[in-house]
Specification:
alpha/beta, 7 strands, globular, two-stranded antiparallel ribbon, 148 residues, five-stranded mixed β-sheet
Length: 148
């Protein structure tokens, strides 16, 4: 009897994996933190809905898409949905990253903290969670209110 995978949760250590970059070369999942890892599949309608919203968070929040598809299809998807954040490939033969994170469905996003631990997990589309991510801007130093 197959055992169900458990998705990594807030507080868990991120697996130190290296994945192929869509642009060539490899990337460690822990090379640049904090970051949002967004797992997706190009045929997933919820991914097609969610990733353009994720794109709006970039470049204010470091984002890495992790595609469960091949390079050619992923490149077409990124172009069709105007995605500019770096994309990593989770090789289809064994899905090492998806399996290490316990992904059971996409989209699933992991907010990685500077210490290499997961700060937040978002499964599927959740508007409230996306708005909270939008509040985590790295480069904004703008007051909430200023007299005019």
């Amino acid at each position: 009897m197959a055992r169900a995978r458990k998705t990594l949760a807030a507080g868990d250590k991120v697996p130190d994996l290296r994945l192929p970059r869509l642009e060539g070369g490899e990337q460690s999942l822990l090379a640049h933190t904090p970051a949002l890892l967004a797992f997706f599949k190009i045929s997933c309608p919820i991914c097609q809905f969610t990733l353009p919203f994720v794109e709006r968070l970039h470049p204010n929040l470091r984002i890495y898409g992790i595609s469960q598809d091949d390079a050619g299809d992923t490149r077409e998807f990124n172009e069709a949905f105007h995605l500019t954040f770096p994309t990593l490939l989770d090789p289809e033969d064994d899905f090492p990253a998806s399996n290490a994170f316990g992904i059971t469905h996409v989209p699933t996003m992991f907010l990685i903290q500077p210490d290499g631990r997961i700060g937040r997990v978002i499964e599927g589309w959740n508007k409230n969670e996306m708005e909270q991510l939008g509040a985590l801007r790295e480069t904004d130093n703008v007051p909430a209110w200023k007299a005019g």
